[in-house]
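Why should sequence recovery work at all? Because a backbone constrains its sequence more than one might expect. Tight turns favour small or flexible residues, buried strands favour hydrophobic ones, and helices have their own preferences. The token representation captures these environments compactly. In the example below, the structure is given first.
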């Protein structure tokens, strides 16, 4: 493992990463686990990851232990085995990609029924067994239940879209031909800022929801999937458009006081947008 002068990890071997994943801190760091399972195929292979997890599960003391040390080691080993099993369940349940991970499916089944069934609590082994069954009976394009869980989140997001209007109305927006004359400061009241923030957030959410994170990571590396590239480009274009729009509305003002007022307006909108995004990501 490599650290910079601030103590931040800048590089690590696969074995070290697996140790981090199955450490006391790692199992509670959802973001680290999520990032690993989304990205590991870019620098390793399913076979290597599976082998490292099994090696971690079967880890033995490096030398002779006293009776007291043996008791401590046994307790720690059982905890590590439980964590490894949880990582395997996370892989199978949320991040399994049959077209890429299928090569370790049979070894994983053998390990599960020969070792995990013997060592684990019945309820945890049952969850792993059920996840294996879903992988076995699903089509080749199966990608774990992360997609299903995303759809459940989208249903909750739709509740935001179905919320009652803010009460804001703008007479010129009713006529598309008059929309070019609308001044952003026409929205400078509580209902207007909330409505603008809501619409911007929903538009950004609509674009982001079209992109599978794993596909985006692969595209970032090889730039081959044109369909994913188009989706990423649309997100980037939208963000740039909003950025230039904000700058334009500020520079239109001729006096420092007027520009300051627009800056404050956009800061308020950004604050409301942040609350909207938070409500989406914590549902």
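From this structural description, the recovered sequence reads:
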């Amino acid at each position: 493992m490599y650290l910079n002068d601030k103590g931040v990890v800048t590089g690590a071997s696969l074995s070290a990463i697996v140790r981090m994943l199955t450490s006391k801190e790692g199992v509670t760091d959802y973001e680290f686990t999520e990032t690993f399972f989304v990205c590991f195929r870019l620098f390793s292979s399913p076979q290597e990851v599976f082998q490292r997890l099994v090696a971690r599960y079967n880890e033995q003391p490096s030398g002779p232990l006293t009776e007291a040390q043996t008791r401590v080691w046994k307790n720690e080993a059982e905890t590590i085995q439980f964590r490894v099993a949880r990582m395997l369940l996370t892989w199978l349940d949320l991040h399994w990609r049959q077209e890429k991970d299928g090569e370790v499916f049979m070894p994983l089944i053998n390990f599960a029924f020969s070792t995990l069934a013997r060592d684990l609590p019945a309820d945890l082994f049952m969850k792993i067994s059920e996840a294996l069954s879903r992988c076995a009976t699903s089509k080749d394009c199966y990608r774990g239940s992360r997609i299903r869980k995303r759809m459940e989140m989208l249903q909750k997001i739709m509740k935001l879209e179905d919320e009652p209007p803010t009460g804001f109305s703008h007479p010129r927006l009713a006529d598309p031909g008059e929309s070019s004359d609308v001044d952003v400061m026409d929205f400078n009241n509580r209902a207007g800022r909330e409505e603008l923030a809501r619409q911007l957030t929903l538009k950004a959410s609509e674009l982001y929801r079209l992109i599978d994170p794993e596909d985006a990571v692969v595209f970032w590396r090889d730039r081959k999937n044109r369909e994913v590239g188009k989706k990423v480009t649309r997100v980037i274009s939208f963000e740039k458009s909003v950025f230039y729009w904000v700058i334009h509305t500020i520079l239109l003002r001729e006096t420092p006081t007027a520009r300051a007022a627009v800056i404050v307006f956009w800061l308020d909108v950004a604050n409301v947008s942040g609350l909207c995004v938070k409500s989406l990501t914590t549902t």
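A few observations help interpret the result. The longest strand covers residues 9-11.
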